Amino acid sequence: MDVDGVMTDGRILLVPDGRGGIHEIKSFSVQDGVGINFAHRAGLLTGIITGRTSESVMARAIELGIKIVEQGSRNKLETYEKVREASGFPDSAIAYMGDDLQDLPILRRTGFSASVANGHQQVKEMCHIVTASPGGGGAVRDCIEFILRAQEKWDQILERYLA
Questions:
Q1: 3-class SS of residue 145
Q2: Which fold has domain 13-162?
C-alpha cells in the first residue's frame, strides 16, 4: 500500500526540530492499525511502497509488524516488481491500495486494487473498490475488511470479540 494519502490524510507537517533542521510529522489512523493487525492474524503479508522517506513511517511499520517497507521510491513500479519477485507471489495474488496517479502502474497489475474515498478520480475509476473512508481515516481498515470477508476469514476475526 501507499502511505501518503492512504495510511495518512496526505498532509505533511514540517516543524523546526530546535537544531536548525526540520522534523516531519504524519498522522495515522488507529482504525487502520487495527485493520492491519487483523490482516496479520488472518495470515496476510502487508507492505508499504512510498515515494517519501520518513522516520514516522518506519516507526509505524515496526509498531504494526509491517514486514515490507520500501521508502524513497523514485519509481514505484520498479520497487513493486523488486518486492514481488522477492516474495514469489504472482501479480494475481497481490492487493495494492493507492490514491494518486503514481500508483496507477501498480494498481493496473495487481489482482486486487483499491483506492480511498478522496483519491484521484482517475485512480478510483481504475480500482476494484473505493473505500467509504478517506485516506488516513480508516480506508486501510475498510479495504482489509473487504478482503477478509471475500476470503471468508472475517467471521474468525469477529469470534475473538464476540466470545
A1: helix
A2: Rossmann fold (3.40.50)
Rounded to the nearest 10°, the torsion over CA 89, 91, 93, 95 is: 120
Domain residue ranges in the chain: 13-162
Q: Which H helix or E strand runs over 52? A: none
Distances (CA, A) of 72 to 35, 53, 69, 79: 25, 5, 10, 10
Could you give the CA distance from residue 30 to residue 17 in angstroms, rounded to a whole number?
25
Report the distance separating Cα 107 and Cα 101, nearest Å. 10
Contact status, residue 154 vs residue 148, Cβ threshold 8 Å? yes
Please report, for the chain, how many H helices and E strands are present, in that order: 7, 7
pTM check: above 0.90: yes
Q: How far apart (Å, rounded) are the C-alpha atoms in residues 30 and 53?
A: 21
Q: Which secondary structure element, helix H or strand E, spans residue 73, and what is its range?
A: none
CA distance 124 to 122: 5
C-alpha cell belonging to residue 69: 517497507
Give the C-alpha separation, 109 to 89, whole Å.
12
Cα–Cα distance between 47 and 75 in angstroms, integer? 16
- Give the pLDDT confidence of 79-96 residue by residue, as tens digits: 999 999 999 999 999 999
